[in-house]
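## Example record

The block below lists the input lines for one assembly entry, exactly as stored, with component labels intact.
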Amino acid sequence: MSSNPFPLAKAELLQAYRTMRTIREFEERLHVEFAKGDIPGFVHLYAGEEACATGIMMHLTDIDRIASTHRGHGHCIAKGVDVHSMMAEIYGKETGSCRGKGGSMHIADLSKGMMGANGILGAGAPLICGAGLAAKFRGDGGVGVTFFGDGASNQGTVLESMNLAAIWNLPVIFVVENNGYAESTSVDYATAVDSYVDRASGFGLPGVTVDGTDFFAVYEAAGEMIKRARQGGGPSLLECKMIRFFGHFEGDAQTYKAKGENELNRATRDCLKMFAQRITHTGVITAAEFAVIDREVASLIDDAVSTAKGAPLPTTRDLLTDVYVSY
Amino acid sequence: MARNISFKQAINEALDLEMRRDPTVIILGEDIVGGAGSPGETDAWGGVLGVTKGLNAKHGGRLLDTPLSESAYIGAAIGAAACGMRPVAELMFLDFMGVCFDQILNQAAKFKYMFGGKAKTPVVIRAMIGAGFRAAAQHSQMLTPIFTHVPGLKVVCPSNAYDAKGLLIQSIRDDDPVIFCEHKNLYALEADVPAESYAIPFGEANVVRDGKDVTIVSYGLTLHRALEAAERLAKSRVEAEVIDLRTLSPIDLDTVIESIEKTGRLVMVDEANPRCSIAADVVATVTQNAFEALKAAPQMVTAPHTPVPFSPVLEDLYIPSADGIAAAVSKITKTALAA
Amino acid sequence: MTPLIGIIANPVSARDIRRVVANATSLQIADRANIVLRVLAALAACGIEQVLMMPDRGGIYGHVTRGIERSRNQGEHRFPSISFLDMPVTGTVEDTHCAARLLRKAGVAAIVVLGGDGTHRAVVSQCTTIPIAGISTGTNNAFPEHREPTVTGLATGLAVMGRVPHGTAFAPNKLLSVAVSEKNEIALVDAAFVTDGYAGARAVWRMHTLRELFVTFADPEVIGLAAIAGLIEPVSRRMSGGLMVRFAPTPDAAMILGAPIAPGLVEAVGIDDWRRMPAGVPFAPTLASGSVALDGERELSFTERDEVSIMLLDNAFLTVDIAATMKFSAVHGLMRQTHRQYEESLT
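Predicted structure tokens for the full assembly:
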């Protein structure tokens, strides 16, 4: 058994793997279940992008807030939202994290600092500025992290928020999840300056680009940025270049991708595989230890799905509740 | 002994009292202090019409001037509310809702419901509404119906200084998102307002004048036009009961229906454009629920279906007038009006 | 047919973590494109007619082609004719590697490189036979000299047109060759052995992780890890061999040195020992496991099971000697024109 060359202890490496594997299995299973026609509405899967959410969230606690996107399952799981309640929510059941009233695109758990997946692209950026503002007033060193894609980065709300965060020196991190596609439109077409980092410096914040499929690159860069924000160093932008294995939504024929693109990505840019291989190469963790986690996660997801399928639906009365605190 | 202060001052007092009571109350908006980064005085403006003047000296650090970025700072106020604060954000003119509406419509209004009850967004968005200031089409609208339409939002529209103070205090204490509408033409209007703190509950209309012949309902500026019309009608021996709605969501139609059961006649006055207006909303609901009590078709007296014109002579025609209201009453009471 | 010049400007350089942990900035895409246009104009002024460039999807291609088109629309003849290499664009350092190989195959007389140490290293790793003219646009620029790009372009043009003797126009450079088991890499300025066993965000800024440093030259005026060497014992680019430094934890160190290891970041390091590094001699690091940072970026990880060695090579590749070329051209009037030449240039 060699010494551990990584910036995380073995237990933390195992936890990182578990989180990423949970996200992967959750999404792969949804892909299968959705194709059966059992899941209402839209789902947008995060498979392939696990290293980004996990690498960042490992630096956050419950006092820190995140705002997510329509592709939010990965962020939820990495932030500690309960998997069973997430699955029930996606199935529209009363036991879901939002009592079945939000669905996949609106899963939230404010007790874990998860301010919601959001169906409006770019809407999380102003909300996280608010979280940063609240953290400053509380003075507890909390930070806010807002995720948005290469497409949403062109929404006015994001640009305004970068400026606002800069002038008020808010403890917030803007994370650009650049997977190259905004639905079917390539980032090369839609973004005039293919450098979110240049944009960030245009607003007076430092920006860093990392390979979003490299857990350690994300972990290290995010760690520095979050530490800086906690210490009053202000906002920054992290661009993670990554790939999504599936389409924009489930049901997307993905004809805008190149032939064999998904297969090539799964073979050569699978962040989970690369993470495991690097670690097993050093002997810090064995393949057998990882396999134990694989089995545990598979069984967790299985249980989450069957529990969700058997859970009760909301009732007619639930239609009218929780519009207001009081009216 | 009357303590007469203006509507504007009453708003200022409400903000001051709540900021003293609750350290999580902060104010954000453009030029609400004024002079940020500029070489002259701070608190140079205290808001574009001086409503927040003097607050910075008392609560410095809790009033934040913002850049010209409504979607960012209104969104930040909403986000901060979801994180345990009670922000009061000023959207200078409600007409500017276009540049930040998503944060209000799809975020603040939806959190409680979408997140299964597990969210609280106690934000107040104060905004100026209304015509008569010669501010023209983009700074004079009565957009209240757009907000009352949205489940999850509360909409408050006081007509006088006393109500303004009590309703704003209530709005700040309320745990839901509130759109607090301030008619710019009422800012100078004075009324007797107690110095201490008091809260007026939502969903309680106010019968400001008793009468037996017709019920005139309104809110905001046109409430005063309704009262003028009532004076004129009294000369022709038509006694109008005038009701001030005060809050549009939640709305108190029970008081209106109770009055209709007495008078049998309804005239609803609304400065909003006619299609899908508060007038249309009130008339439809009352007709459905109190049809038997009605002795005549309910009347809506609204602005025309046009943008707000600039030229004073035209703008004065735009806003429902006392004469226009009296004419509507005359029609359904079949009474000729005394000269 | 005038000599062909190659240009490599990779937009992916300089967006790393030193922008957060230090005060690094880097030139924006538009500024890099402007530098390319300045170089092109200078090359044209020397009579260069053809330039071959690396394509990119990061914005430089767009800006450069628009700049040339605008100039042509105004009837100017300020730029040479440009073509772009036929190669796939990945948006990574692979593009630099690919472009360097293709430019070598195309037989260019020199390659103008825009970037930091990492980009220059990427070019030289694929091509040591073609002289490089370096322009610094990256985060750490110990290798490329800081100079107005127009002058770099002028000197390169004069040099490849044969108007300056070869020995004056081109200077020899050293490099470090590093082997970790079967993997081989090079560094142009420095190789640092650090305790972090993973590449992560690549840059090196935590001084307590440093164990050994090997440099090809030690210039007291540079920033980066090589600054440590430069501030202990200067070794010029033209001298044979380099310098090797061993570190110790600051409390136990024989000497504590403050060095500008990143833009705006002056950090203390503990130095145990240093000496000149002779060329052609392999050395093994004393660090049993960790990684080696090449020109400031962690590249290769190794454990006790790997065989690691490092060697300095003299005269490994050529650069255009801008200072010497421009001095020669001043002394020998290379930029003077006859009245006839001037009149011809106006038509």
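Chain A has a mean pLDDT of 93. The two ends of chain A are 64 Å apart (CA to CA).
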